[in-house]
Amino acid sequence: MIDEQQEMVIRHSKYFAQWTDRHCGYKKIFDTAVNGISNLRFNKTIMNIPHLIFICFGDYGNVYGTYCDLPITTLDINSPDFEKNKSCHNFIFTLNSNGRIQDPQKFELINEKRGSIQLHEMDDPCLFDFGYGSSRVYVHKPTSKKGYCKNLSRSYEKIKDNELIGCMFPQPFHTERVIVLQML
To answer: Where does the source fall among the domains of life (predicted)?
Structure first.
């Protein structure tokens, strides 16, 4: 049975295809509502798979996320592989922002900056974070209400710091669900 959030993913899949230039559909590879919130399981499922869309359903109906074209191959931010995982093709997006932005919108990195997605270790309340440098969104597990967003306007085109989530650090936000798709 398809719930309202899955229906939203299906309804907006045309944007994902357009934004990623991948038009052969998608495959759902992780859903916290189905697969749980274990960092170990999340990381094991997500790692080494290219062309991932991370869709986050948050407070007050906010729906936002990020795209990573390269596979995530390490958790260690000091590893040379972490640098290889950064890409100028990564972007962030919003599907619903409670009127702050009217339509689904993609925000690209400024001046060929290379964004990253960092997966977190076991027992960390944060599932993953994404962005460039200190311009990041920290997505915590649905059991934690301490996610935060910082400095997006410094690294992404045409976005204000509070537009994606509706708040910015130090004000926390809550993520209710994360769905990850592989674009085919």
So the answer is: Eukaryota
